[in-house]
Design a protein that fits this description.
This protein is of the alpha/beta class. Helix content is about 35%, strand content about 20%. The chain has helices at about 60-65, 65-70, 85-115, 125-130, 220-235, 250-260, 280-290, 290-295, 300-305, 320-330, 350-355, 375-380, 410-420, 435-450, 500-520, 525-530, 535-555, and strands at about 1-5, 15-20, 25-30, 55, 80, 135-140, 145, 150-155, 165-170, 175-180, 205-210, 240-245, 275, 315-320, 335-340, 365, 385-390, 390-395, 400, 425-430, 455, 460-465, 470. Strands 6-5-4-3-2-1-22-23 form an 8-stranded mixed β-sheet. A 7-stranded mixed β-sheet has the order 7-8-9-10-11-20-21, with helices on one face.
Length: about 550
């Protein structure tokens, strides 16, 4: 039995591990690299068609984003995930496929003008649909027999709806060994979802370290802080615009707003409207509601048991079409607008910023991390003027941040989760952390818990039968080039998607279009009819591409 480390090694994204055990070839996660890329990933040591199955920890694209490519390149096995993860993957992988297709269109148009070959998408919407047929939705805490000698168990790890750590039991030559893959360990006391559940035994632990070098600090009273922002802004007659990620963070904010309304924490503005202006967020919210029984925490389940909905309330408006989105800006009543993308680099949020940044009475409230170089970070850092759709916009609105909201466990949270093991594993592998974080966190696990630790680079191979390293590698730095194609994590021929600058904006905005097309399940027929007749979305897509090209020419 051996384990090969493929992706998210001395890096945070692109999670992928290759396990050979009991005659089976297994992937644990198959994620896409996003954002900054430090080290090259080795290709898989086998062809995709030779892989028997994939175990998925949760739905985020940096853990699942290359599954459609894996299928397109020949994988025909089963994909095991929790029920909620399977449902979220359905919308997120289609969303990602739309991004790949949009990027290919943009590149092909440029190539055509130069007389060069058109650029194919990394994968297509058809690939995303096909890979979903291979999912096996699994309940939490049930032992799933994958083969005669391999069984798995998903345990709620409190990071995202459906997120899990995976226990893998392998029997070889009459001896059983247990591997635990942490996935992304969640923060405690998050609304809606459970706190991370611990394990008591493992021979080998593969643990993430995203925030292994920092503490989130004291828990904030988010409800009270949010209510204060709403009160202050509404008293001025303004709007509260909240850039928010469609899946997870949007639903958390809805939970807080429901409490604020129920407890009358905002006075003088009873019945203020709240708009969720993101088709992907609308569908994700529906999926959250569908999994109240298996994923919600006791507090949220109690609300459901009383016949209420913890993320729904009077005057909540869910908008799908472009016309509905535009109409929001003509509603004069003070309101909350939740829209994607969370970092303001694409999507409908940019239109709402255009209509609200210049208003002294409005507030732009950030509720998530803003990456360096993003429009969100620029606003947070005090920009006095920004450019939106080719127009200079003066920043007069109040720029505020709701600090401390995070879906990841911090250093203390990771240590607490790892402390659940009654005895140290034979070896603990520290992955899914920045280069400057993994080794210090490995040292901390050894110091505090007595764990024997190792922080592997991509390509490292470990013999799990004899607990010895078969191949030790060092990080191969990525060559910095604007559009250079790099070997990725999912398959020998895989390429990494560039996600910087203009292309990042274009990719994220394309996700909105894909969500419009695929948000049909759970939507009223009248809205589906309106969506089907929505020609403007196509025109908007082409206009957006032209705008980006024109901006590029001016640089």
């Amino acid at each position: 039995m051996k384990l090969t480390f493929i992706g998210a090694d001395h890096e945070v994204t692109g999670s992928c591990h290759f396990l050979e055990a009991a005659g089976k070839k297994i992937l644990i996660d198959c994620g896409m690299e996003q954002g900054r890329d430090t080290y090259q990933n080795v290709p898989l040591p086998v062809k995709p068609e030779e892989i028997d199955c994939v175990f998925v920890t949760h739905a985020h694209i940096d853990h699942t984003g290359l599954l459609p490519l894996l299928g397109a390149q020949g994988f025909r096995g089963k994909i095991y995930a929790t029920r909620a993860t399977a449902d979220l993957c359905e919308i997120m992988l289609l969303d990602s496929a739309g991004i790949q297709e949009m990027e290919a269109e943009w590149k092909s148009r440029k190539a055509e003008r130069k007389g060069e070959k058109a650029a194919p998408p990394l994968y297509t919407s058809r690939d995303a649909v096909e890979i979903m047929r291979r999912f096996i939705p699994c309940p939490y805490e049930s032992e799933i027999q994958v083969s005669e000698d391999i069984a798995i168990r998903f345990r709620d790890v409190g990071h995202l709806l459906g997120s899990s750590a995976i226990e893998i039991r392998v029997r070889e030559e009459g001896k059983e060994q247990i591997l635990v893959f942490s996935g992304d360990v969640g923060n405690t006391n998050q609304p809606l979802i459970n706190d991370p559940q611990k394990f008591s035994r493992a021979d080998y632990l593969i643990i993430e370290s995203t925030y292994g070098d920092r503490s989130h600090g004291p828990k904030s009273d988010y409800k009270t802080q949010l209510a204060a922002v709403l009160q202050e802004t509404f008293d001025r007659g303004g709007n509260v615009v909240i850039p928010s990620f469609a899946i997870g963070r949007t639903q958390e904010i809805l939970y807080f707003i429901r409490q604020i309304k129920q407890e009358h924490l905002v006075s003088g503005h009873d019945g203020f409207p709240v708009y969720v202006d993101s088709p992907l967020a609308v569908r994700a919210t529906s999926i959250f509601n569908e999994h109240s029984d298996d994923c919600f925490d006791p507090e949220a389940r109690e609300i459901v048991a009383r016949g209420a909905n913890p993320i729904t309330f009077p005057k909540l408006r869910l908008t799908l079409t472009s016309e509905e989105s535009k109409e929001i800006n003509y509603v004069k009543e003070p309101k909350v607008i939740l829209s994607a993308s969370g970092m303001c680099d694409a999507g409908r949020i940019r239109h709402h910023l255009k209509y609200n940044l210049w208003r002294e009475d409005s507030t732009v409230l950030f509720v998530g991390y803003q990456a360096e170089g993003s429009l969100g970070r620029v606003l947070q850092e005090g920009a006095e003027e920004v450019t939106l759709f080719g127009e200079s916009i003066r920043v007069r609105a109040k720029i505020a941040t709701l600090p401390g909201i995070s879906g990841h466990a911090d250093r203390e949270g990771l240590l607490d989760w790892a402390s659940g093991f009654e005895a140290p594993p034979r070896k603990t592998f520290v992955v899914h952390g920045d280069d400057a974080v993994v080794q210090p966190f490995a040292d901390l696990l050894h110091e505090k818990l007595g764990f024997e630790t190792y922080a592997p680079y991509s390509g490292t191979i470990w013999d799990l039968t004899n607990n010895m390293c078969l191949k030790e590698t060092t990080g191969v730095p990525v060559e910095k080039a604007a559009d250079k194609q790099l070997t990725g994590a999912a398959a020998p021929d895989c390429v990494k998607v560039s996600s910087g600058g203009i292309m990042e904006r274009l990719q994220k905005d394309a996700g909105e279009l894909a969500a419009l097309v695929h948000a049909g399940r759970g939507i009223a027929n009248k809205d589906l009819q309106k969506l089907a007749e929505e020609i403007e979305a196509l025109c908007r897509k082409w206009k957006y591409i032209e705008d980006q090209e024109n901006r590029e020419k001016k640089r």
